[in-house]
Write a structure and sequence with these properties.
The chain is an all-alpha fold. It has one domain. Helix content is about 40%, strand content about 0%. It has two helices and no strands. The chain is globular, with a radius of gyration of 12 Å. The model has no long low-confidence stretch (mean pLDDT about 85).
Length: about 55
């Protein structure tokens, strides 16, 4: 999954993390995934931070 919110007015509103949570919940609950790995680029501090938010 690649997530990019180009409109800066929508940054810092939790939209990205909400999307990630919804997608991961769907994978576990609807598709019965056993494991989900999220591996952001280490240089992307915003992406790394969002993975540790919830």
């Amino acid at each position: 999954m690649k997530l990019f919110i180009s409109e800066t007015k929508y940054w810092n509103q939790g939209i990205g993390i909400n999307l990630i949570v919804l997608a991961v919940n769907y994978l576990f609950e609807q598709l019965q995934a056993e494991k989900v790995v999220i591996d952001p680029q280490v240089w992307n501090t915003r992406a790394v931070q969002s993975q540790h938010t919830k």
